[in-house]
Design a protein that fits this description.
Blueprint: H1 2-5, H2 11-25, H3 38-48, H4 51-56, H5 64-75, H6 79-104, H7 109-120, H8 135-156, H9 160-180, H10 188-201, H11 208-218, H12 224-236, H13 246-255, H14 258-275, H15 281-286, H16 292-319, H17 324-327, H18 333-354, H19 372-384, H20 389-431, E1 434-435, E2 440-444, H21 455-465, E3 475-477, E4 480-481, H22 486-494, E5 498-503, E6 509-514, E7 518-522, E8 531-532, H23 546-551, E9 560-561, H24 571-574, H25 582-595, H26 598-610, H27 622-631, H28 634-644, H29 648-663, H30 670-680
Parallel strand pairs: 2-4, 2-7, 3-6
Antiparallel strand pairs: 1-9, 5-6, 7-8
């Protein structure tokens, strides 16, 4: 009954798009919180209010500010609505692409649907898990699809009033999507290609040059979109980003003519990434590194999606009313898809390349999104160049399956990373009642390499310890964090550099990187606890990074204020408090060790062992070993020695830490000193 009722409508295709995208994007959506750069956006909004989001984008992409402000005013710090809005926007974009493809190729309903599916599931864009910051990118490509469809409706309308209405809609939406993402301007070439296709088909087919002339004539009002935008953006707008300034990029070309050759190389690479490699590389990068449970879940959801795709294939084949999908001219239509898709993709990525960037994955996958609309057309051309329908169906199913697995793998990694970070900071709260303002944190999370993305360190730290309102911008970051980059690592080890950086262009923050005032926090592995490194007697693990082994002397434990009550992390994004298991007792014992309360350390150790808790990392016995030694509890010292002496590194560390106690005001009884020398120092 449903299929009969929807035979002559687009409701069936939209329903299939919703099912397919929902099974792809929604399974882990309730577990996603703040991802990477979301931290600095939401911290700015936390301490300044929504107006901070206006100022972040004021001199880069000013239309984004009101969008961010609107969303934050509606949803605040709750991450779930942002992820839902991101998904809905993506789905609407898929519907817009389906409409656009049907306007371009009205007789190819089956193919148009599958190209819309590929666009909706495009796996080259990996930032959809960042629910706040990347809203404008997804909204831009969605508005882009509709804007071009509005242009086709305008030029094909028979009445002046309709032409005017559709033209105004095209102009407004065109300026909107470019204001959100300025490097998407290359897609205006695709708008002209779409008009060209319409001109070539209308009435008697024209030859190339007359078609081009007529295309430009018909498109005249719509050429105002790129022309007006470029005039405003390059000459009227106070742009603070050099990468977006045409004069800056042309200056590099004049300084080094070889830049043009490099642009050709990067253009070739970018086109391949958008049109082909996006379906392979993100899958390879994000799927296999997950836990077996996540891999199996990904496979299950991929199987469901492929089943829905097959049902859609059967329905559309039956509902088309003819066999045109199998009887089209293989020498014409696929070639049209190929050249339109290729030219559109080249033009779509060209502005990125001319800005001396490259369309790639990982941290810059947002560059793939505008041209993904033409990339899937090119890919459709390759597939529809194959005459056998079964092979085409298998290829489409395979691409959809790879996309689903890539997104499922990415979501699993994001959830795992966010859970790791929230658990880490719950342990920090147990360990540190306060962290002094002006501290620069050096943090190693297990399995997370954040490179220049140090927001994932200072963001959580300041959310917890410095949520107080600020009046003026830029936002002052009271607790900073060092980047995990080569230059920063050298400065950490040397400990001889301090500077303040005010980033008004990207983040609207002022942050002080003080390598002379560090606090090193490390979680060596997923099974280990967080270790606050005390240079007097560090709890260093064999699983710690070489960076920590080289720089632990620079960690100043006094940057943790050991007095007072610890703050309670906000529910968003840290969730409920962790269970009080081994790591709770370890953190409280380490805090008591910093205070010099050895009785409390021993008490916590006794209680933890009575409850059956024990460490996964033997370095975590150190506070208890020191307490038992200081208090003269030889039996307990002996028991711990049997655990840590199986690893020579821990045995040596125990000797050093126990020997350092006298130097720092906690001498061991002479009998105990001889005993530990015999146990650990021989």
């Amino acid at each position: 009954m449903f299929l009969k009722k929807t035979k002559n409508t687009r409701l069936a295709e939209i329903s299939f798009l919703a099912f397919i995208s929902g099974l792809t994007y929604l399974p882990r959506i309730g577990e996603l919180t703040y991802y990477r750069d979301d931290w600095y956006f939401l911290y700015d909004a936390l301490v300044i209010g929504p107006r901070a989001l206006i100022e972040i984008a004021l001199h880069t992409r000013p239309i984004r500010g009101p969008l961010y402000e609107l969303y934050f005013s509606l949803f605040g710090l709750n991450p779930l609505p942002y992820h839902i809005i991101m998904y809905i926007t993506r789905l609407v974009g898929g519907i817009g692409a389906l409409w656009l493809f049907n306007l371009l190729w009205p007789q190819k309903r089956h193919a148009n649907f599958f190209m819309a599916v590929l666009f909706l599931l495009f796996p080259g864009f990996l930032w959809w898990v960042a629910g706040f910051e990347f809203q404008p990118y997804v909204l831009s490509v969605t508005v882009q699809a509709f804007s071009i469809a509005f242009t086709l409706k305008a030029i094909s309308s028979e009445t002046a009033s309709k032409r005017l209405g559709w033209t105004i809609a095209a102009l407004l939406s065109g300026w909107a999507y470019l204001a959100l993402v300025e490097y998407a301007i290359g897609m205006e070439a695709f708008r002209l290609l779409c008009v060209y296709l319409y001109v070539r088909r209308k009435d008697d087919p024209l030859t190339f040059f007359p078609s081009v002339v007529k295309t430009l004539k018909i498109s005249t009002p719509h050429l105002l979109i790129p022309i007006v935008f470029l005039i405003w953006y390059q000459f009227l707008f106070d742009n603070w980003r050099r990468a977006q300034d045409a004069g800056t990029q042309l200056g590099q070309l004049f300084d080094s003519p070889l830049t043009a050759l490099w642009w050709v190389v990067q253009l070739f690479r970018s086109v391949l990434n958008v049109s082909l490699f996006a379906w392979i590389v993100p899958f390879y990068q994000n799927f296999y590194g997950n836990r077996l449970k996540d891999i199996l879940l990904g496979l299950i959801f991929a199987a469901f999606v492929i089943a829905v795709v097959y049902l859609a294939h059967i329905y559309l084949k039956q509902d088309s009313g003819d066999d045109q999908e199998d009887k089209y001219d293989f020498n014409h239509w696929p070639k049209e898809l190929l050249w339109v898709g290729l030219v559109g993709t080249v033009c779509g990525v060209l502005p990125v390349v001319l800005a001396n960037r490259v369309v790639a994955f990982e941290r810059i996958s947002q560059y793939t999104l505008p041209a993904s609309l033409t990339g899937v057309i090119f890919l459709g051309g390759l597939i529809y160049s194959i005459s056998l329908q079964k092979i085409r169906t298998i290829l489409f199913a395979g691409l959809v399956g790879l996309a689903v697995l890539a997104h499922q793998g990415l979501a699993a990694q994001a959830v795992r990373e966010e859970k790791t970070i929230s658990d880490f900071w719950w342990q920090v709260v147990w360990r540190a009642p306060a962290i002094r303002t002006g501290t620069t944190l050096v943090v190693t999370y297990p399995g997370i390499y954040y490179a220049e993305g140090n927001d994932v360190v200072w963001g959580p730290a300041n959310f917890i310890y410095n949520p107080e309102k600020q009046i003026h911008t830029p936002v002052i970051i009271p607790i900073s964090a060092s980047r995990m980059e080569a230059d920063s690592i050298l400065e950490i080890i040397k400990g001889n550099r301090s500077f303040e950086k005010t980033d008004l262009v990207i983040k609207n923050i002022s942050i002080d990187y003080n390598y002379k005032n560090l606090l090193i926090l490390s979680q060596p592995s997923e099974g280990a606890c967080m270790h606050a490194i005390d240079a007097r007697w560090p709890d260093i693990s064999i699983y710690d990074q070489p960076l920590l082994h080289a720089s632990f002397q620079n960690s100043k434990i006094e940057n943790i204020d050991a007095n007072g009550e610890s703050p309670v992390p906000p529910t968003y994004p840290f969730g409920a408090e962790l269970l009080h298991e081994w790591c709770y007792y370890y953190q409280k014992a380490d805090l008591a060790r910093q205070r010099g309360d050895w009785q409390e350390v021993a008490h916590l150790g006794d209680e933890a062992q009575k409850l059956g808790y024990h460490p996964n990392d033997q370095a975590e016995w150190m506070p208890f070993l020191q307490a038992y030694a200081f208090l003269g509890h030889q039996k307990q010292v002996k028991g711990i020695s049997t655990r840590i002496n199986t690893e020579p590194f821990y045995k040596q560390q125990a000797c050093m830490n126990l020997s350092a106690m006298a130097e720092h005001g906690y001498p061991l009884p002479s009998e105990m000193q001889s005993y530990i020398n015999e146990l650990f120092c021989i």
